[in-house]
Design brief:
Blueprint: E1 3-5, H1 19-28, E2 31-36, H2 44-53, E3 58-60, H3 73-86, E4 92-98, H4 106-122, E5 127-132, H5 135-145, E6 152-154, H6 161-169, E7 172-176, E8 199-201, H7 223-234, H8 238-253
Parallel strand pairs: 1-2, 2-3, 4-5, 5-6, 6-7, 7-8
Helix pairs in contact: 3-4, 4-5, 7-8
Amino acid sequence: MVITDTHTHLYVEEFDEDRDSIIKAALAKGITRFFIPAIDATYTNQMLALEKAYPNNMFLMMGLHPTHVKENWEEELNHVSLMLATHRYYAVGEIGIDLYWDKELLAIQQHVFRAQIKLAKKHKLPIVIHCREAFEEVFEILEEERGEDLFGVLHCFSGDLVQANKAISYNMKLGIGGIVTFKNGKVDTFLNKIPIENIVLETDAPYLAPVPYRGKRNESGYISKVLEKVALLYNLSTAEVAAKTTENSKQVFGV
């Protein structure tokens, strides 16, 4: 059984003490495909080192995270552009809009989001979207950019059924992670109304650990709890869900 974690930040400081053991534990569970979203330029070297250490398992993205859109955003965009031109990446991400932490920089976040979508189209890559308290703003830009060359994943989906179907209409898969296991997560109340062809699994490690690890550091190995919950909701075996969501991830990322 091959399991794919489509969103995990294995290069961040939270894993500096035990990164290899965390990865090996996940590999032992059949989690052999890890898609690695970027945050900003300060992490690029760590991401490249992770890929070098596990070349058959780590698939890197490049992008500027919306919460890291600061005064140096032009420099950061130039870095994203340069890296996309000089190294193999499998998506532009994670990119998007976050109005939970900062509403004052909305206009710049929107500009940076648009610019990175255009880079994705230029390189014929999917996008991986971060959307927090900003569905309306994200959908507005996706509507502007709608087309066959716009596709990807709406990471950490936490919206309702209407928003889910709208995201799917823009050629987005829904990234389903630990929230589906939360009592107040709500995603579990309608997920099985969405064809399983439209979802992928993720952890967002080290964030958003699923039950029973909620509140602790998340790990890619914990995707097994997400897999079990999704299998229950769809009335399928874990092997069937693992196979289908892995196939969905291949459709998005091309590998």
